[in-house]
Amino acid sequence: MNSLVKPTLVLVCVVLLALPLFAQRGRGGSGSGCAIVDTPRLSTTTTTTEANSAVGVFDRVTNCASGKKRYTVTGSSVSSCGYETIFATGVMSFAGGESKHLSVACPIAPDTCLGPMTVTISVYDGATLIGSSSTTLTVQ
Predict the structure, then answer these.
(1) Range list of β-strands (E), 20-127
(2) Residue 21 belongs to a domain
(3) 55-66: b or e for each residue (b if 16 or more CB lie within 10 Å)?
């Protein structure tokens, strides 16, 4: 019996010591990022545009984590009647503390509801939203 207890005790100790290492590995993949998203700027001189057109959206995204990260950056708009359109999405790589500028076109559909439209740039680390910022555009 004694020959079975010692190896079991050693195995339990090794597993208990290894648990913190497995936990650290799991954290690095997602949810540990940090991003700062500036307020998006629009290409219009005013915040008004017409349906069946497009507006340029310009923004700066900063990785406020200390290490290299890959984030999914998404541009979306929500019309005054609640319809969401994703007009841009992509994965961007950042060095620690690095900022990147982005410019994308936000199409305004011909049947878009008139009134205020919210334009948002969002940054995700895996499935976790880590930063976003919005501005308003009026469709008339």
Answers:
(1) 35-37, 41-42, 48-49, 53-63, 69-78, 84-94, 99-108, 115-125
(2) no
(3) bebebbbbbbbe
Asked if residue 23 belongs to a domain, the reply is: no
**Residue at token pair 């540990």:** 32
Q: What is the CATH number of the domain that holds 48?
A: 2.60.40.10
CB-based contact 124:130 (threshold 8 Å)? yes
Ramachandran angles phi, psi of 30, nearest 5°:
-155, 155
| Confidence (pLDDT) at 3 | 53
Say how many domains are in the chain.
Answer: 1
- Span 70-111, pLDDT tens digits: 999 999 999 999 999 999 999 999 999 999 999 999 999 999
Look up residue 32 and give its amino acid: S
- 56 beta partners: 105
